[in-house]
Task: structure prediction
Amino acid sequence: MKGEAGARKMRLRSLIKKETLQIIRDPSAIGIAFLLPVILLVIFGYGVSLDAEHVPVGLVIEKQGPEVSQFISGFYNSEYFEPRFFSSVQEAEKSLMDREIAAIVWTRSNFARTLLNTLDAPIGVIVNGVDANQARIIEGYIMGVWISWLDKYARSKGMSLDIPVTVKHRIWFNPAVRSRNFLVPGLIAVIMTLIGGMLTSMVVAREWERGTMEALLVTPVQKAEIILGKTIPYFILGMGGMTLSVVMAVWLFNVPFEGSFWALALSSALFMLTAIGLGLVISVAAGNQFVAGQIAIVITFLPAFMLSGFVFDIGSMPVPIQIITHIVAARYFVSILQSLFLAGDIWPIFVVNCLWLAGMAVFFFMVIKRKFHKRLQ
Result:
């Protein structure tokens, strides 16, 4: 028995060494594991933002006055706006049509007179609604400037501003409301999906194409040893890419990390095993590198990007799509990452999502064991 166990260990070490050498000799594998995370994080970290900052807003003033100047100063003192003056509404509307500005704030000639009488100055607001989400954000910012100034003006006149509901904002977990803090953790899940799914989706197919699988099948190596020999190197490679991504997120993009690193390591390991398992299932089923790569993009990357909650809120999706998201492993890992980075160790979220990932990993490896046969096709 000891001799058999030693032989199994020796065969497994040889398979791991063989797969590791193939990874080292294949620049694309190293690139996907370490170069791709850097590129994606730089693009999304610096180039993609859901924040409305430095919004070009057109200001149309029919009649100057101290009240108008005080109100307009609120736009200059805000980091969210870049004011531009226009002599007429028609000129501002033309600029809005040409996408040179995103909104128009129009103060009419009776601004001061109506303000003094009723505290309800007539102002016009026109917002470009092509991007509905951006339009709502800009509208909220403009209303914030208006209500804030109106309240100060009323107090300066010894009057009270009659607002039916006063909202006091308190934002948890992401008080700066930086979209980068939300996007970068979710992007780590997409990166790990690419590393685990894309790379392993072609490893078995590559063996068949190169004819090395036939040579492997005539050896005493067991089916479980072949699976482990292909899983372990890519697992280590994927965890290395994850570590690089986390370091960049924390140190380069200043995304706060409130959770514990052991929780991050455990959940990342479970997700990496799930991604590798799905990749191997695709590789075994496809038998061709090109076909496996195309299937992997459709089954792993696109669902991780579109249906994981990384960019689009799952609760806002149609109910049938919400049901489909339950079979997307990245959904559970994105939830864990966003909680660990922004809120900390929230155990109900962590445990439930880890159990889903563990169950999916077990399922995929059971499918691999069943579908992978140690015989010529």
Observations:
- The chain has a mean pLDDT of 82.
